[in-house]
Amino acid sequence: KALALDNDPKNQILNHDVILSERAQVKEDLDDTKGAIADFRASLKIKPGDSFTLGNLAEVELNAEECAAANNDYSQTIAMASAPETLYFENRGVARLCLGDIANAYSDYQAAAAQETKDVPGNFSDVYLNAWALGVRIGRAADANKALAEQLAGAKDNGGLEEDAARYYLEKTDAGPVLAKAAAFSKDNGDDTWAGYGQYLIGLKEMA
């Protein structure tokens, strides 16, 4: 209604690009993917240099399995953004995997890992584990192991599952510590979420 009422192109009061972007996010929450994509694109026609909106569009496209569009829009987002987010590289890697571009997908996962190290020094996240798994999967195990070992050595051990998983991937331990800690976290929180995450981390190594 706001857009309909503010319809004089010579005397617009509202920021139509902002309203369209916000409406797109509402539509995404309502599972109206096509409507969200249309609104994000309409917002970008008004303000084409908005890397944040373009990144949001790319994410919706990726969720809708519009992989070519997501790849293109994430590439533009990364080029435009003054400080590209880790998620941009990781999600573009997913889009490229969808397109069968495995080599460049691995490069994106490596870039995501590097960005994570820069943005959150000392933290160890699943970004590193995902990059490792893809590297092993495409026959780059030596490179993947070296990178993961360096990332683990440079991180503070915050007692997370990811650090234990990294040691398991590097064959410094078995799966026991991951599963035991995941079970303990689930017990403390009263749900099975952590236990499921622990199983996922173990499965990631097995799939690599």
Protein model, in words:
This protein has 208 residues and is mostly helical. Helices cover 74% and strands 0% of the residues. It contains 12 helices and no strands. The protein has helices at 2-5, 16-29, 33-46, 51-63, 67-80, 86-98, 102-119, 126-137, 141-153, 161-169, 176-189, 193-207. Helix 6 (86-98) runs antiparallel to helix 7 and helix 10 runs parallel beside helix 12 (193-207). The longest helix is centred in the middle third of the chain and has 18 residues, at 102-119. The chain is globular, with a radius of gyration of 21 Å. The mean pLDDT is 91.
Provide a quick synopsis of the model:
The chain is mainly alpha-helical and 208 residues long. It has 12 helices and no strands.
Radius of gyration: 21 Å
How can the largest sheet be summarized? none
* SSE topology string: HHHHHHHHHHHH
Low-confidence stretches: none
Summarize the SSE layout with pairings.
Elements: H1 2-5, H2 16-29, H3 33-46, H4 51-63, H5 67-80, H6 86-98, H7 102-119, H8 126-137, H9 141-153, H10 161-169, H11 176-189, H12 193-207
Helix pairs in contact: 2-3, 3-4, 4-5, 5-6, 6-7, 7-8, 8-9, 8-12, 9-10, 10-11, 10-12, 11-12
